[in-house]
Amino acid sequence: MRKKLLFLLSISIGFNTVAQISNGGFENWSNSSWDVLDVVNQSQSKKSVDVHGGQAAVKLETAINGGDTTFGYFMYGNFGNGPEGGIAYNEMPDSIVGYSKYDIQPGDTALLLVIVKSGGQMIGAGTYNITGTQNNYGRFAYKIDYMMMSAVDTVFMVATSSNVINNIGVQPGSWIIYDDISFTGVNTQIPNLDFEMWNTVNVDQPDNWSTYSVNLVQGGFPDYIEKTTDMHMGNHALKITTQEINHDNKTDYAVSVSNGIKNPAQGQGQPEYIGGTPFTNQTDTLTGYYKYIPINSDSATVTVQLKNQGNNLAYVVKQLPAAGSFTYFEIPFSGNSAPDSILITLYSSSWPYTHSDSGSVVIFDDLQFKSDISVGITTLSNSNISVYPNPFQNQLTVNFNSLVAQQTAFEIYNMEGKLVHSNLFVANTGQNQMTISTTNLSQGFYHYVLKGNNEILSTGKMVK
């Protein structure tokens, strides 16, 4: 329901949109959802309705993803320094059987690996290679060979769509569908080898920003990005939590969000992000708000790169200390010539990342360039409030139109988010004007908020 102040079209504070940061307030997000295989870790696996029995099967596929070749797999356990962990199991199976159909590209090989363990030691195993094409479901049966007899406590299992263990002949387009897998010679089975149990996963992504969220969640890891209502202004902000990722015999850290695009060659001595967004100001200042709860002596980080045709003109690094409430920051930058783009990357930790950084949390909000704030008077549509002059000196005038008499408040906040002036005013029906003394305000940038009946009705920015 419309509140009691009616704002028509009038004069207000304007903004220069030439260098504006797209979604710098992190108000706009998009959601992605997909089905994730329950119990097991998985990456690039898909729920398939092309089944042998039941309602679902699992499809593993090798594909091109963002310029990189990714493979499909499901796994009980993890692959840190080789096959690690597994699922608790206390029987000694004779063999593994099931049903599959596949199209493995020439030179490539799909793999199925089973390791039976006792006390962390391998006592039995089998590696099975799948090649060629099989258009219809066929039964397979692979024997598990044992080196010793001992009490079983764990089974490790992984299936892949390509020969990624030896990294030989990996080809996009290779795929395999599994269904109704089981062990023989036992009384109980590992859960969900019939692939009937799936969970729906949702990931929120900030519009016009790049993250590695989808890659991580598809790999069975928690998301490190969050749309939070703990914000400086508006409805949402960006929350990043440093996360340690152990995979493929190495340790990585999920820490960053960028206005560029993900670099397919990252992890090979190359940056995480490339590109950027159009930008032509040779000199400017990035501003914003953050709050930060680090682990130990960690620091949040912001980097700004000015580029022209992909070549760096300027590279600025700003480390941000702990801050329990939203704190204003500025990052001045200047290139040695005119840029065509800018790459901004936000980090929840500082390089080099370590295990002790895991859990550091940063929230960013209201990123903008100082050039976004004009020093003139322009028109904002759908409002009938005029605040002038802008820039101001010792006095501001506020004009607005009210449908009924009511209590209003005009509040001014500095760039740290601190209330520095509040003016109460009883509005009459019709046109109203209030004059505000600003002699006590120092030079700088400010936000104003106009409230009616304690509800925010209009906001803007101004400079003294």
Task: Provide structural commentary.
Strands 3, 8, 11, 13, 14, 16 and 17 form a seven-stranded antiparallel β-sheet that branches. Strands 4-5-18-12-15 form a five-stranded antiparallel β-sheet, with no helix packed on it. It contains one helix and 41 strands. With 464 residues, it is mostly beta strands. The two termini are 36 Å apart.
Itemize the secondary structure elements and their pairings.
Elements lengths: L9 E6 L13 E9 L3 E3 L1 E4 L8 E5 L1 E3 L2 E3 L2 E4 L1 E3 L1 E3 L2 E2 L6 E9 L6 E9 L2 E10 L2 E11 L1 E2 L7 E7 L14 E10 L13 E9 L6 H6 L6 E4 L8 E5 L1 E5 L2 E5 L1 E3 L2 E2 L10 E2 L2 E2 L4 E11 L6 E9 L2 E10 L2 E12 L6 E7 L13 E9 L3 E8 L4 E4 L6 E8 L3 E9 L4 E9 L2 E8 L7 E8 L2 E9 L1
Antiparallel strand pairs: 1-34, 2-19, 3-8, 4-5, 5-18, 6-7, 8-17, 9-10, 11-17, 12-15, 12-18, 13-14, 13-17, 14-16, 20-21, 21-33, 22-23, 24-32, 25-26, 27-32, 28-31, 28-33, 29-30, 29-32, 35-36, 36-39, 37-38, 37-40, 40-41
Summed up, the helix count is 1
Please compute the radius of gyration using only Cα atoms: 29 Å
- Find the count of extended strands (DSSP E, 2+ residues): 41
What is the mean pLDDT?
84
Please name the CATH topology of the largest domain: Jelly Rolls
Shape: elongated
- Would you identify the CATH H-level superfamily of the largest domain? BT2081, beta-jelly-roll domain
The rounded distance between the terminal residues' Cα atoms is: 36 Å
Question: What would CATH call the class of the largest domain?
Answer: Mainly Beta
Helix content: under 10%
What is the number of domains?
3
